Amino acid sequence: MSTTALSVGEIKAEGFSANTESRSGAILVWMRGNADMAVHERLKGFLDALGIAAKSARPKEVVFEFEELYFMNSSCLSLILRFLNGVLELPAAQQYKARFRSNSNLRWQKKSLQAIQAYAKELVILE
Fold first, then answer.
1. From CA 79, how far away is CA 77, in angstroms rounded?
2. Which CATH superfamily is domain 3-126 in?
3. Chain centroid to CA 30: how far?
4. Which site among 32, 41, 74, 78 is 20 to 30 Å from 109 CA-CA?
């Protein structure tokens, strides 16, 4: 299984981190901790860079690893929708799936991710 770094960067903040890795046709995105207004602008830049990197890498899917994401406020969730809009705006041949791996013990994730899936059902896969 080959892995390569992407030019997305990472976020290391008190209480939150995010990083990426390219692996076998997929881009994995780990988010851990609490995504709130303290990291909103950094998360916006991170997701913008992710969109640019994905457009160039042309993955089959982007996998969001949310197992250790304990909280995400509505402003940060809206950044996920913004990212998905970028995918939807691509020509059909360049679009890719967005897979969200969640933590079943965190009730907010189920509700929020179901809403995200309803928004872009042709792209979003929930696990």
1. 5
2. STAS domain (3.30.750.24)
3. 8
4. 41
